[in-house]
């Protein structure tokens, strides 16, 4: 089982950098679907990812069809969109034989509408108050969804407790 965050034509280097940092800290693969709205050498993107870039497995895809073509039969794709009916926490991400891919849309326009219409059963959403905001921040949304998958998977290969000699809360 492996988790993947997929960004469709990301525009903002700071969001992608922050997501890359989350991927480094969660052993999650990052996929970037071109065209990108920035260079991966961009100073803002590097700054957002700090010194974690060498800890992130990044895969590039020329376009959305090329990404979809790369998926295998044991891969489960979820489209994260505010237009989905089902909430992200209502999905079971615990099948150890599957890889889970969470596809996020472009910051300004989301995922292509024809693609969303063709795959409504794959769509999940993060509950939000649509009266007060148009959308949640992309980096925050990616973190919310990946940590729910990891929680259900009991945080595989991740340190969940830190006990130090000087801690007063030791067992």
UniProtKB/TrEMBL annotation:
Question: What is an annotated GO biological process for this record, any one?
Answer: wobble position ribose methylation
Describe the reaction catalysed, as an equation. 5-carboxymethylaminomethyluridine(34) in tRNA(Leu) + S-adenosyl-L-methionine = 5-carboxymethylaminomethyl-2'-O-methyluridine(34) in tRNA(Leu) + S-adenosyl-L-homocysteine + H(+); cytidine(34) in tRNA + S-adenosyl-L-methionine = 2'-O-methylcytidine(34) in tRNA + S-adenosyl-L-homocysteine + H(+)
The alphabetical list of record keywords is: Cytoplasm, Methyltransferase, S-adenosyl-L-methionine, Transferase, tRNA processing
Q: What domain of life does the UniProt record list for this protein's source?
A: Bacteria
Locate the tRNA/rRNA methyltransferase SpoU type domain: which residues?
A: 4-147
UniProt xrefs under Gene3D superfamilies: 3.40.1280.10
Q: Does the keyword Glycosyltransferase apply?
A: no
Listed GO CC annotations: cytoplasm
What broad class describes the main subcellular location of this protein?
cytoplasm
Which residues does UniProt call coiled coil? none
What SUPFAM superfamilies is this protein classified in?
alpha/beta knot
Name the positions where S-adenosyl-L-methionine binds.
Answer: 80, 105, 126, 135
List, alphabetically, the InterPro entries matched: Alpha/beta_knot_MTases, SpoU_MeTrfase, TrmL, tRNA_m1G_MTases_N
> Which cell locations does it reside in?
Cytoplasm
Q: What is its EC number?
A: 2.1.1.207
Molecular functions (GO terms):
identical protein binding; RNA binding; S-adenosylmethionine-dependent methyltransferase activity; tRNA methyltransferase activity
Q: What does this protein do?
A: Could methylate the ribose at the nucleotide 34 wobble position in tRNA.
Q: Which family does it belong to?
A: Belongs to the class IV-like SAM-binding methyltransferase superfamily. RNA methyltransferase TrmH family. TrmL subfamily.
User: What NCBIfam families does UniProt report for this protein, alphabetically?
Assistant: tRNA_yibK_trmL
Output this protein's name. Putative tRNA (cytidine(34)-2'-O)-methyltransferase
């Amino acid at each position: 089982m492996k988790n993947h965050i997929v960004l469709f034509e990301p525009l903002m280097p700071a969001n992608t950098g922050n997501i890359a940092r989350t991927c480094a800290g969660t052993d999650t693969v990052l996929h970037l679907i071109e065209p990108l709205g920035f260079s991966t050498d961009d100073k803002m993107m590097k700054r957002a990812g700090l010194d974690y870039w060498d800890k992130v497995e990044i895969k590039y895809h020329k376009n959305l069809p090329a990404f979809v073509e790369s998926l295998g039969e044991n891969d489960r794709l979820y489209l994260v969109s505010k237009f989905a009916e089902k909430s992200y926490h209502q999905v079971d991400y615990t099948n150890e034989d599957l890889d889970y891919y969470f596809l996020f849309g472009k910051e300004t326009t989301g995922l292509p509408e024809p693609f969303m219409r063709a795959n409504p059963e794959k769509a999940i959403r993060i509950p939000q108050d649509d009266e007060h905001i148009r959308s949640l921040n992309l980096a925050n949304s990616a973190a919310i969804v990946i940590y729910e998958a990891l929680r259900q998977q009991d945080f595989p290969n991740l340190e969940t407790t830190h006990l130090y000699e000087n801690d007063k809360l030791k067992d």
